[in-house]
Design goal:
Elements lengths: L2 H4 L13 H11 L4 H6 L3 H15 L5 H15 L2 H11 L6 H9 L6 H15 L6 H9 L4 H24 L19
Helix pairs in contact: 4-10, 5-6, 5-8, 5-10, 8-9, 8-10
Length: 189
């Protein structure tokens, strides 16, 4: 049995009663039920935690583009094809972010030094299991990130670790709305 067979997408009608309001809200927000949400609905508590985490991160001290850097970085490290396509789609309408998105999809240094310090910090949280080296902390401070912003970046890493791992474990299929932004990790990385 494959992961996709193990976690059949649920709908508002087929999900457990505890998941239905969250699925209905997601359906209304997106206009369709995204595969990761339809699969996470097998666990109402997982779905509730994911959605609450996204909401908390959206209200953090980081700007929207800083939050995108964190989300992309975690998705790149975990190789979450869904998140890479979704976040590319979310940024497609902002041509001023094209070079940034290209670098994030490629796993290369960002053109903005401040955002690059954040990317490396988030990457090291994932790769080094939270044991970020002192030089990375110093780079983050030189980039004028506060301690609150560092902890909010950690919040984002945690939220997106759970999200990306959930997508990988459940075999979330790429929805047609994001198909043109399909991603594969570069082989040289």
């Amino acid at each position: 049995m494959t992961t996709s067979q193990r976690f059949a997408p649920l709908s508002v009608e087929t999900a457990a009663p505890a998941s239905r309001p969250m699925l209905a809200a997601s359906l209304k927000h997106f206009g369709f039920l995204p595969s990761p949400i339809a699969k996470a609905a097998h666990s109402p508590m997982l779905l509730k935690h994911l959605l609450a985490g996204f909401d908390a991160f959206d209200r953090s001290s980081l700007s929207s583009i800083e939050r995108e850097v964190v989300a992309f970085t975690v998705a790149f490290e975990i190789e979450c094809h869904y998140c890479m396509a979704l976040h590319t789609a979310l940024n497609a309408a902002a041509p001023e972010h094209a070079a940034l998105v290209a670098a994030l999809r490629d796993g290369t240094a960002l053109p903005d030094p401040r955002l690059e310090a954040l990317r490396q910090f988030a990457r090291d949280i994932v790769r080094m299991h939270g044991r970020v080296p002192e030089e990375r902390w110093q780079a983050l401070a030189r980039a004028d990130f506060s301690e609150q912003q560092a902890l909010d970046a950690l919040l984002g890493v945690g939220v997106y670790l759970l999200s990306t791992l959930s997508n990988v474990v459940s075999g979330a299929e790429l929805d047609p709305a994001f198909a043109q932004f399909r991603w594969q990790k570069p082989s040289r990385v």
